Amino acid sequence: MKRGYKVETIKIAAIQMDICHCNKQKNIKKALHFSEEAISKGADIIVLPEVFSTGFCYEELENIAESGSYPTIKELEVFSKKNKCIIVGSIIEKHSSKNRETYTNLGFCLEDGELVGTYTKTHPFGKEKEYFTSGDVIEPIHLKERDLTVGLQICYEMRFPEIARKLCLSGADILMTIAEFPNPREHQWRTLATARAIENQVFHIACNRSGSDPTSTFFGGSMIIDPLGNVIADAKDGECVIIEEIDTSIMKKTRKEIPVFDDRRPDIYK
């Protein structure tokens, strides 16, 4: 396959799954099961919820966090290579130094079996701040085999329009939010997800979890939203896979008709 080949239409699947608290083996098996379903329906990109393999398993961080070769990512690499697909998600990462361990929420993007980019969550929320170190870099991930750039943000970060805007100003063709957004914030989730698509005139894949953990319940509500803010796929609640073919040329057309990016005046926004 030609390196850097131009992509305009691409099929994207968002996997909305109930994450079994601290049960990595069960969650990976479930994610791969839903990924098989997505591939059978023609998906090119598969998007998984935030920390899909463990949930926020604070009580066992030392045991479930990963570093080095990232075993969870390695399992997904095999699937990605076999099916020549892209997989996006996040895991809990461990860093060890000077007899001290720290943890981060590590977003990742696989393309055809290769880890092509990572993103460390820059804005932990609430209790996360007690356990996770923040990332300091907001940059999109450039795919190697396809002429396509992914802008990845994680959960709470959808509340910060600066993050999505920076990703899109840096060339993101598709915006993705992976999350564990809990009840009772469904209205906020849907409003924010739609706003990020409209204001950046970009396709937005918002992938949330469903089910419950020891402290929260989750409404799902995963969506695929077009650059005009139309919800073209909606998971509602429960475990499921939503899939939609998108045409990135619509983004260019929208930006030409409503030239928000050309009309920006960053000199007066400081």
From TrEMBL:
This is Carbon-nitrogen hydrolase family protein. It comes from Methanococcoides burtonii (strain DSM 6242 / NBRC 107633 / OCM 468 / ACE-M). Residues 10-248 form the CN hydrolase domain. GO terms for molecular function: hydrolase activity. Gene3D superfamilies: Carbon-nitrogen hydrolase (3.60.110.10). The keyword Hydrolase applies. It comes from the Archaea. The keyword Cytoplasm does not apply. Keywords: Hydrolase.
